[in-house]
Amino acid sequence: MTRIGSSDLSVFPLSLGGNVFGWTADRDASFAVLDAFVAGGGDFIDTADVYSAWVEGNQGGESETIIGEWLASRRPEGVVVATKVSQHPQFRGLSAANVRRAAEASLDRLGVDAIDLYYAHFDDESVPLEETVAAFGRLVTDGLVRNIAVSNYSADRIREWIRIARSTGVALPVAVQPHYNLVHRNEVEETIVPLATEFGLSLIPYYALASGFLTGKYRSTDATGQSSPRASEAAKFATEHGLRIIDALEEIGDAHGASIAATALAWLRAQPTVAAPIASARTAEQVADLLTGGRLELSAEEVARLSDVSEWTPTRV
Predict the structure, then answer these.
(1) Contact (Cβ atoms closer than 8 angstroms) between residue 218 and residue 231
(2) Which CA distances in Å does 317 have to 236, 239, 242?
């Protein structure tokens, strides 16, 4: 188990992404994935109020609704649910009134008394940060939210959020959710990790498997014939540099009897301040690899090798 920042949340060190629920996984498939995750020891689920508004016929909130129905049906103990605000078509932005309305709508869809971890999904510079910080603080004070966090914020804006929260005496963020994986490292390691270290924040990275590239399924930049809606995004990483990373993951994974995906997740877990990478599964059969990624311990030498082969330089394009 791993603790999230200064919170009282202690979770399995792999978070199940709910972005596919209501998109590439229907209700029954989503229930099967959630059942397999919890049966295998998982207890940390990540979603957002906007998932999956991009699907034709959806309005947003489909993932939260499915998770809420699953929670009501299964009544699992100790499951931690994180969700986010700012992108739902009906609740865009981070004004105080919108944050409150969006949180109440998420609570209704999830069917819970309080949201365990509530993120500002994307920065909204059209609203004074003081207003947003105060709004999140009131959610905690009023018992709608237990802990707050930020996603896709720059280090400077996170630092300013913390300064405002400290000066006004409201709840401080406990976690940051950045885009971070073996093929997307530089900005996070140069700016976010040092800040997280300074303030005791945990990183909960999304795109932990680079849209599926770090599963090893995409070894060509040509995504023709691939059924996954993320195939073209994943395939773009299949450069000479990207394939060197896959080869190293495969060799190290084989030594542990683990998959490429599990090994990529284990590398990410080994990075400073990372508490629990987020990865999603469309089918129950895919869950085992994710759970292994939450348990696999790489040696210092293996972590260093993957860090070296994945380090971007101008000659590695």
Answers:
(1) yes
(2) 11, 7, 9
